[in-house]
Amino acid sequence: MKTVILHIEFDAIIESLEGLETDQILLIVENSIKQEYPQQIERINNLNSKEVITLFVDGGEQVKEMGTFSQVLDYFITSGIHRESHLVVIGGGATSDMAGFVAATLLRGIKWSVIPTTLLSMVDASIGGKVGLNSTQGKNLIGAFHQPEYVWIDHNFLNTLPEVEWQSGWGEIVKYSFLIPPSKINFHQLQDIKSKQLIASCVQYKGRIVSGDALEEGQRRVLNLGHTFGHAYEKLFSISHGVAVSYGIASIFILLEQKEMLQLWQDIYLGNRCAVAPLPWTRDQFDTEKVFATIQGDKKRVAGAAIKLVTLSSVGNPLVKEISLEWISKEMERVRDELEQLRR
Amino acid sequence: MKTVILHIEFDAIIESLEGLETDQILLIVENSIKQEYPQQIERINNLNSKEVITLFVDGGEQVKEMGTFSQVLDYFITSGIHRESHLVVIGGGATSDMAGFVAATLLRGIKWSVIPTTLLSMVDASIGGKVGLNSTQGKNLIGAFHQPEYVWIDHNFLNTLPEVEWQSGWGEIVKYSFLIPPSKINFHQLQDIKSKQLIASCVQYKGRIVSGDALEEGQRRVLNLGHTFGHAYEKLFSISHGVAVSYGIASIFILLEQKEMLQLWQDIYLGNRCAVAPLPWTRDQFDTEKVFATIQGDKKRVAGAAIKLVTLSSVGNPLVKEISLEWISKEMERVRDELEQLRR
What ipTM did this prediction achieve? Predict the structure, then answer.
């Protein structure tokens, strides 16, 4: 199934909800959104043509724990649902990851749609149908592929976005700035990557890639640019996903000695307002052995002693390289030292 | 993906396991099988070409609880797995339902295969990719469709099958006796439906139906013959799944006043050794309101006040009828009384 992604105002979202082919909506809303947008939530709860069963949850990674998932399932099952129930989630990427997994597994799969409320979720998390939970051992180790029916992007939700969430979103936009061909839109010639119009370019790019490779058997892998190191940084240094991915991209360029690419990264990431997110570690904090062990642990999930890293031959031309873990281990000190030099 | 279903001896299963395209097998084995077939389990644990990570579980419906599922996931994740790991389950239908859901959700889905050890699982549960868990609210409310790669049926496991499991399997075979066209194999002319050759006919029929409608959007629904009443009987009278389904089929024939079909059911079910499973309730125990409420609760999962019941125009010609809940409620006393008359 192909997801319909729309940039849309809230009034039109209400109309779309009224038009869904169901008599029952299962609504999952982040508590922070309930507080900031009570009228909007009220309007959904009072749709003319639907019964709406609403559940409020706290956002953030803890929403992706097995216990929360189990409680959410129980809540909806007890409420009396059916196979044509349509799940709608309003929130950031972690919340929609969990909600999508609920939709994937409730009665062996019901339809669902997303109203993303963070920049990261708008440009990345809400698109592509990767849904799931974290395990104590790592992120997203439990999950499924379950494409949402609609993604309704209302940019107005960004008006109340906290600074830390802007930074996470920009980090992921930096990823797109390397993946999207300059002929489409050249992020690297823009003065300011905060522009909301850029969201549409990222969404369009990801939508196209994902619809051609829903199960990540090929082309879709390029979307993992920066994620091998990024996941380790996110876990070890408690920084946001997007910021971790951005530094993960820089790490790849350092590892593979792609100096021009690293310069571009500095220009776009450090040169823009997103640079208020500084390197999150000092040399003392950056324990190269721990970082390597985390990468290795993450990649135990790929058989063998080599891992596949995404890099670029030029902007817009990603490629996947197979690199031995042994070699990465050897180069870790250099990555750490060069990242340290980027600090200011 | 189409499942390969093979009737096979244990030596050949070992060969097939050695030939799987993976270096790691995640093995889930029912404790009862470990006790009865220790040498076979030992042989799998000592495959030449694979690392085998083994977990033993108790069989039966309690294996399909969320807590067990979560523990099984944790066990394998902690053991260090990867996307090419192949899960193999040895056990009855409940165990393979749970194990298949683990395979469906671990790292967003890994390959899996089944070695069914009960009659019910051989003819029904192991085939078709319906996997999942029970909720406190009802059976199979959480789950996915995830086709196994192989089903290896070794009839020798039936040598130690307990009587109650034979009866459950026969109940489900009675279902096939009505679904399979008499031109293929006429169960109703057989003296004894215990014959192991019949297993192959059931397997072939289900495999064909399922491969044409993996997500149960049409044709596959006929496999639910007897399940609407059957699920209620199973829940309320603590009888095995297959026996409940068989009486569920009789109930449909009574409800729709299909006297010839009911006579056929009596001949094949009550007339064979499976008849040692008597009607599991007396008139006093059969609370028609409770049975109806359970059917209604189960079917809340279909929108509206009518439910779809599978019946037959003749043997081998199933059809789906839409019947109002109100009418079923009205007829419940009659169903109870006529079932009561079948007691002996």
Answer: 0.91
Q: Which fold has domain A164-342?
A: Dehydroquinate synthase-like, alpha domain (1.20.1090)
Q: Which residue of B has its CA nearest to A136?
A: B74
**B144 vs A80, A104, A138: nearest CB:** A104
In which residue ranges of chain B is CATH 3.40.50.1970 found?
A: 4-159
> What's the rounded mean pLDDT across residues B59-84?
95
DSSP for B225-292 reads: TTHHHHHHHHHHH---HHHHHHHHHHHHHHHTT-HHHHHHHIIIIITSGGGGS--S--TTT--HHHHH
Split at pLDDT 50, 70, 90, the class of B301 is: low
Element (H, E) at A253: helix A241-255
Rounded Cα–Cα distance for residues B71 and A67 (Å) = 12
User: A142: which chain B residues are within 8 Å (Cβ-Cβ)?
Assistant: 73, 77, 105-107
Kindly determine whether residue A24 and residue B108, on different chains, have CB atoms separated by under 8 Å.
no
10-residue mean pLDDT series, chain A (344 residues): 91 98 97 98 97 97 96 95 95 98 97 97 94 90 96 95 91 94 84 76 93 84 94 89 94 96 89 66 86 80 76 95 92 92 72
Residue A302: what pLDDT?
59
Of the candidates B154, B142, B193, B190, the residue with the CA atom closest to the CA atom of residue B172: B193
Among A269, A266, A239, residue whose Cα is nearest residue A171? A269
Helix (H, G, I), strand (E, B) or coil at A281: coil
Q: Tell me where in chain B the CATH 1.20.1090.10 domain(s) lie.
A: 215-342
CATH entry, A4-159, from 3.90.1720.10, 3.40.50.1970, 3.40.120.10, 3.40.50.1000: 3.40.50.1970
Angle subtended by helix axes B10-18 and B38-45, to nearest 10: 20
**pLDDT at residue A277, as a whole number:** 63
Could you tell me the pTM of the whole model?
0.93
Q: What is the pLDDT of residue A198?
A: 86
The distance of B32 to chain A (nearest Cα, Å) reads 28
CATH fold of B215-342: Dehydroquinate synthase-like, alpha domain (1.20.1090)
Q: Is the pLDDT of residue B303 over 60?
A: no
